Amino acid sequence: MSCASGSVPTEQNLLVEDLLHVHPLTAARRYRPSDRGELVEAVMRAAAAGRGVRPLGSNWSLSDTGVAPDVIDTGALSRHLSAPFPVPGQALPPERLRGGGDFLRRACADDARLRGRHFVHVEAGIKLRDLLADLAGCGLALPTMGDGAGQSLAGAISTGTHGGDLRVPPLVEWVRAVHLVSATGREIWITAGDSAFAAAPLVMQLPDWCPDARFIADDDTFAAVRLGAGRMGAVYAFVLEVVEQYTLVECNFEYRWPELGARLAASRLGADGVASGLFDAPLRDLDAGLFRSEVLRRTYYPAVGREAKFIYERGAERWPGVPAYFDAHPEVYARLLDELKLSGLAADLRGGPALPLHHLNIAISLADPQRCWVRRRWRRAQAVRAHEVGPAADDALIASVKANKTNPSGIVGALKDRLELDPLLDFLGWLTHDPRKQRLDWYLDHGIADIAAQHQAIGATSGETVFLVLRRIATDAVLEAGGDVARAVSEVIGGGFAKLARAGPASGGLHLNMLDAHDYGLDGAQCGNSGEFHFDAAGGGFLDFIGDAMRLARQPGHGPVFGYIGIRFTPAASALIAMQQFPLTASVEVATARSRVDDVHAGFWSALHDAARARRGIPHWGQEFRHTGAELEALYGTRLRRWRAALADLCHGAPAVFSTAFSRDKGLEPLGGGATDDDAIDLFLAALAAGDD
Question: For position 432, what pLDDT does the model report?
Fold first, then answer.
C-alpha cells in the first residue's frame, strides 16, 4: 500500500504559463504538495481521475514535456533530506533540512571510494538558485549547470540542461540516486548497481521510509530514469554529487565570425585532453598569454582630438597580432589594466597555476552574422576577489520593460525616447523635410502607440512590443533602416558579453555567483522561440547547420531575423536519451524574439527544423523541437528502446498516468506489455544492447 497523505492542496482550471509563452495550458487540476506524502497523493488522485499528469517546477522548458491535463507544482519540495556530507564550510541551517537525517554521513563516511567527494540529498523541486546559495554556505558548489538557475533541479536534470564546460559532463551525470513516485503511487529508490547508495538496509532507514517502497540497483534503469523527460514518474528527491567551492575567471571578446568559424573548424579536443585551436587557450594570469593578447589587439592610439593615450575599445580585433610596440613599452598594458579596473584581479592571479580552458560559449548575431562574441572561463581552486559578478545597471528602456512586463502601453514613452535620441539608428542626421524623417515622426506620434495597444489587447508583453516595433522599422520601405536596426539588435546581443572580465565564486546567493547569469527581471516580459540541436564536434555537421541557419535568416521572406546562434561544447553523457551522444558534443542553439501579434519568424523556424532533421541534429528535450517518434528512434537507436524497456517496468500497472500527447508523439511510451510481436522483439534487443554496455 502506498504512503499517500490522504489530502493535497489543489486548484482547478488554472492557466499555467511557461517562460517564453510558447505553450500555455489550462490545467484541470494543479496539485501543490508540500511533502512526500502529498506528492504521492497527487499522483494517485490524477490516476484515479484518468487524466495524464506531469510535475512542473519553473516551467522553463520550451518543449511540451510538461504539458498535461493535470500538473503537480513541486515548488514547496525544496529542502534537504540529509545534511550535505562532507562539509568543508558551515553546516546547513536547520530550517533548510527536512527531518534532520544523517543518511549521507552513514552512507559515505566509511566508503573508501568516496573520499574527497561530496554529496547532497535534496528534494527535486528546489530551484537551482536556492541550491547554489545553500551550497555556498557549506563551502560547496555545483560542478556545472546551464546559464540560468531559475529551473527546479528535477526540471534541469530531466530535460538534459547543460552548460558549455569542455571537460565536465552535464548535470545529469552527477546524479547518484533517484527517489521516484511511480505511476501507481508506489515509491522507488533507483541507483547504479555498484553505487554507495545501493545498500537497501541503509536506504530503508531514511526517515518516514514507506514500507511499500521498491528498491532498484540496476545500471540500465538508472541510466534511463535520470533523464526521464517527465515520463518516468514524479521525482521526489535526488542524491547529487557536488564539489568544493571553486573560482571562475571569465573574459569576453568580440570577433568576426568568418575568421572565428574557420579557426573553430580546425580546432580539436581529444579524449586524452589534448587541445588545439580555440580549445587550446590556457590562462595563468592577466600579464601574458591570451588575455593580454586579445586586449592589445583591440588597443589603439586615437586620432587627433581625443585624449592622447592608448585606449582599449570593445569590438573585433583591430590588429592581426599584438603590435611590437606594446612589447617594447610594457607600461602601456600596465596602465590599461589599471584603467580597466583589473589591477586587483591581475594581482590575485599572478603566480598562480596555468589553467586549461574550462568553458567556451560562442554567440553569433543572426541580424548581422559577421559579428560574434566568445565567452571563455577558467576554473581554479584558489579564491580571488570578486570582480563584476553582479549584473550591469539597466538602461531606461530595459528598466521600463521590467516595470511594465504585461503593460505594453507603459513603455511607449521610453521606446520613443530611445528612437529619438539613440544614435544607433542614425536618424539625427535626417533633414526635417526628408520623407524618412516624416515616416519616423509617424512612428513616434502614432505607430509605436498603436503596436503597443495591439499587444495590450491580447495580453501580450512589453518585450514583444519592442521587438515588433523594431521589426516594422527595419522592414519599412520608406525608412530604409534595416542595417541600422540590425546593428542595434546586434549591440543588444553583444551586451550579454559586454564585461571584459569577471571573476568570483561558482556558487552563492543571487548576483553573488558566477554560474547563474540569468536576468530574472525580464521573466514574464518576453516571448520567443528557441531550439537547440546536438552534433558530433569531431565532424563538420554543426558548422554546416550554422551555415544553414545563416542562409535561412537571409532568405527572402524570412529576414531580418532578430536573434542569435549559440555554440557550446560538452563531453558525452551516459544517460540513455541524453543529447550528448558523442565524446565531445557540439550544441547549436538558435533563439529569436517573437510577437504573438505577428509571428514574423514562423517561416524561418519551419525551415530551420527541417535543416536540423536533414543534418541529423539531436534536439534538446527542454527546447522546441518538431522531430517525430520515428526520427528520434533513428537518432537514439537501441538507447531509446532500452529507455522504453525501463519505462515499461517503472510504470507497470498504470502506463497512462504520466502519458501525454508529447510522450505519445515522440515515442516515449513503454516498450512491450504484450501488445505486439514487434514489441517483444524490441524488448529482447533492448536487453541484449544493455548487456553489451
Answer: 56
Domain map (residue ranges) of the chain: 1-245, 396-495, 527-627, 630-692
Contact 219, 193 (CB under 8 A): yes
Would you state the cell numbers that stand for residue 296, as one nine-digit string?
Answer: 592589445
| pLDDT, tens digit, 9 for 90 and up, residues 383-408 | 999 999 999 999 999 999 999 999 99
User: What is the spatial distance between Cα 45 and Cα 183, in angstroms, rounded to a whole number?
Assistant: 11
pLDDT tens string 196-210:
999 999 999 898 899
- 543/272 Cα distance (integer angstroms): 23
To the question of pTM greater than 0.85 for the whole model, the response is: yes
Q: If we measure between CA atoms, which residue out of 351, 203, 375, 377 comes closest to residue 282? A: 377
Beta bridge mates, 536 = 585
Cell of 156: 534541469
Q: Which of 488, 500, 528 is nearest to 395 (CA)?
A: 488
- CA–CA dist 136, 450 (Å, integer): 48
CATH of 527-627, one of 3.50.50.60, 3.30.70.260, 3.90.1150.10, 3.30.70.2520: 3.30.70.2520
pLDDT of residue 677: 41
d(CA 41, CA 118): 33
- Rounded to the nearest integer, the mean pLDDT of the chain is 93
Distance (Å, rounded) from C-alpha 169 to C-alpha 574? 9
Q: Which of 524, 633, 585 is nearest to 60 (CA)?
A: 524
